[in-house]
Amino acid sequence: MKTIIIDAIALIGAFIGMEGVAWLAHKYIMHGLLWRWHRDHHKKEDDGFFEHNDFFFILFAVPGILCLLFGMFNNYNFVFWIGAGITLYGLAYFIIHDIFIHQRFKILRHSDSVYFRALRRAHKMHHKHLGKFDGECFGMLWVPFKYFKEMKNKNA
Ligand SMILES: [Zn+2]
Ligand SMILES: [Zn+2]
Ligand SMILES: [Zn+2]
């Protein structure tokens, strides 16, 4: 029983922690050292389906896969569940950011709620900035409270 609790904490903790990691990576890596990969996500360069920005999916998938493998070889211990949390976050990020917000696949178009509207608005604010050094809203699933308020007032 005890291990189930530890595994659950590992899974949920990794998922929540990844929002912080994503924020840091977006602000300091994607808008930092590896800006040349992220730049075409802010300023379209051609009409192709893939962006250089997609390299980050491969890069950011590595830690999750390593944790999954390491945990598998150790009897599916908590490291496996950390890997599962990281990987699930990556999936959620992809669904929200690439499908829901940027509509790279023509599904999930009509998802509508205050949360989804606020989330889309927050990321639009991120995209308003075209340069490397200015920016806001680097997170993804955690939406700053002010956008909830803004969207709620719009509804009323
Ligand atoms: Zn960005
Ligand atoms: Zn972005
Ligand atoms: Zn974006």
TrEMBL record:
Q: Does the keyword Phosphoprotein apply?
A: no
Molecular function terms, GO-annotated: beta-carotene 3-hydroxylase activity; iron ion binding
Q: Which InterPro entries match?
A: BETA-OHASE-like, Fatty_acid_hydroxylase
Query: Which UniProt keywords are listed?
Result: Carotenoid biosynthesis, Membrane, Oxidoreductase, Transmembrane, Transmembrane helix
Question: What transmembrane ranges does the database entry give?
Answer: 6-34, 55-73, 79-101
Q: Name one GO biological process term.
A: carotene metabolic process
Which family is annotated?
A: Belongs to the sterol desaturase family.
What protein am I looking at? Answer: Beta-carotene hydroxylase
Q: Which organism is it from?
A: Arachidicoccus soli
| Organism ancestry | Bacteria, Pseudomonadati, Bacteroidota, Chitinophagia, Chitinophagales
